[in-house]
Amino acid sequence: MKHKWNDKPIHSQDAIPELEREAALKEFGDGHSREEAERLAYKAYKDKHHTDGAAFHLRGLKAAQSAGDVDEAKKHGSAYAMHLSALGLDSMDEVPDTVKKLAESDGKPTVHKFKSHPADHFLLSPL
After folding, report:
1. What pLDDT is recorded for position 126?
2. Is the pLDDT of residue 3 over 60?
């Protein structure tokens, strides 16, 4: 990643104000040293992104399994496991609630859209 905050990689420069605000809250609100506050703010930032990534790959895993695409399911499963591992969790345990909520209600369109079949008109019209 080309963007950095205190020599740590971030996704975009837009995250800097959020990280600075979070570090200040931890320093002045919670009484941590500046170094500890920055460490905690960055950990929270990374955890949020790992949670988002885990939810994304969980949705991809389910979609690939539903489609019968074993190779894609394996890729999503591996990425899901790595994100959970980065969060200090085990992918073989139950899906964490935070990941489950994001995977179910991310507000994005579903992967599969309903499309009628030509024979459906037999179901809707009288014989």
Report:
1. 60
2. yes
